[in-house]
């Protein structure tokens, strides 16, 4: 026997009392050195896909 899961979208979930009063803010902002290192790592990661073999 196969179980079938059904999913219903409830668009009215965040109405009335369920709406968050405030959004949380991050306690810090990333520095430019961290962002530069993240970008360099991302570019290195993307560089691994450039040399795809032709089959």
Please give a structural write-up.
The protein is an all-alpha fold. 29% of the residues lie in helices and 0% in strands. The protein is flat, with a radius of gyration of 22 Å. It starts with 31 loop residues before the first helix and ends in an 8-residue tail after the last helix.
Please compute the radius of gyration using only Cα atoms: 22 Å
Number of H/I helices = 1
Q: What portion of the residues fall into strands of 2 or more residues?
A: under 5%
Number of extended strands: 0
Largest sheet: none
State the share of residues found in helices, binned by percent: 25-40%
Helix and strand sequence: H
Overall shape: it is flat
* Low-pLDDT ranges: none
Short description:
The chain contains 1 helix and no strands. It has one helix at 32-47.
Key structural traits:
55 residues; mainly alpha
Could you outline the blueprint of secondary structure elements for this entry?
Elements: H1 32-47
